[in-house]
Each structure stands twice: as C-alpha cells, then as structure tokens.
Specification:
Blueprint lengths: L10 H15 L14 E2 L8 E2 L2 E8 L2 H10 L3 E6 L4 E6 L2 E7 L6 E5 L15 H10 L16 E6 L5 E6 L7
Parallel strand pairs: 3-6, 7-9
Antiparallel strand pairs: 1-2, 3-7, 4-5, 5-6, 8-9
Length: 177
C-alpha cells in the first residue's frame, strides 16, 4: 500500500484552496438578498452580533472516493470540486461539506461573510476586516490576517483552544462598496 505524503499548506494557500472549493460549489447564478437566513455567532451580552455568513465544514480525508461514497449514502450530492486535484464539494439540503485529500492536516470550520448558504451575495453583512477587528478586540490573535487597507475579498484564520482552525473567507466586496 502506497503511503500518501501529506503537504502542510500555509493559511494563505489554504484560503485559496477553500475559495476554489466554494466557487466550484456555488457555480449557479448569484443574487443580492437580505432575506436569506445567515448563521451568526452571538457575543457576550451587550456586544453586537457578528454576521459570519455561509457556513461549511472542510474535512481532511484519507481517501476521497471512499469519503464521497460514504457521504452520498447519507444523502449528500457533489455540487463542485475537482477529484483529479483531490477535492470535492457536497451538499445535502442547506448543509455543505468539502472533502480535501492531502491538502491540510485538520478539519476546518469555514465561514463566508457576504454569502448565504447558496452563495448569493447578501446586501447587508459584516465585512471580514470588521470581524477581524472585533476578534482582535476580544483577545484572539489571528494566525493569518486580512489586509485592512482593502475593501474586496479577503480572509483570516483563527485557531480555537483545541487547535481547530476557523477560516473566515470573504469573496465579495465590502457592503456598500
């Protein structure tokens, strides 16, 4: 049995990979909608709610074909990705997962400010740079940061106390820009 060499990717490259994952999984037409449900993370009492955007889980898998077959038995269907590059996007109703073979070491939570679960651009959302400001103010240091001098797509990565990476990856311009 051949051993698979796992390559550790930098957060910036990881964001690019996940960006491709979401673009491929969101190939349909996009519209602006402020009525779509948006997952949120509520802060401590008195703090404003952070609108984190579309949510997905990026899974680090050992065998892409075996994982795809497993999740298809659970009702997921491929909506994007590139199996020859070792990644696929699957969806079951409003739940999206990405399967990534050999691209990163851990499973990762992914949020996309500015998108609903179908990748429709939201008219009102919290920009990733504002989220970064709030995250830093809360005492969390990102391991990869968004460029605060920009207004377009940007991302940041934080790691929770158990070492789980969380990617906030915005693909649309800041609201009102």
């Amino acid at each position: 049995m051949a051993r698979h060499h796992r390559t550790r990717r930098t957060p910036t490259l990881l964001a690019a990979i996940v960006f491709g994952f979401l673009i491929a999984g969101c190939a349909g037409p996009r519209s602006t909608s402020s009525k779509a449900p948006t997952p949120t993370l509520t802060q401590t009492a008195g703090d404003p709610t952070m609108k984190l955007g579309a949510f997905s889980v990026s899974l680090s898998v050992k065998d892409l074909a075996a994982s795809r077959a497993f999740y298809e038995k659970l009702g997921f269907r491929a909506v994007g990705g590139e199996p020859t590059q070792n990644w696929l996007i699957l969806r079951n109703d409003t739940t999206t997962i990405g399967l990534f073979q050999g691209m990163f070491d851990k499973n990762m939570l992914t949020f996309n400010p500015g998108w609903d679960w179908q990748c429709n651009t939201l008219a009102d959302f919290t920009d990733v740079r504002e989220l970064q400001h709030r995250i830093k103010a809360a005492g969390i240091t990102p391991v990869s940061q968004a460029d605060e001098s920009t207004t377009g797509p940007a991302s940041l990565v934080v790691v929770d106390p158990d070492g789980n990476p969380i990617l906030l990856d915005q693909h649309v311009p800041s609201p009102g820009k």
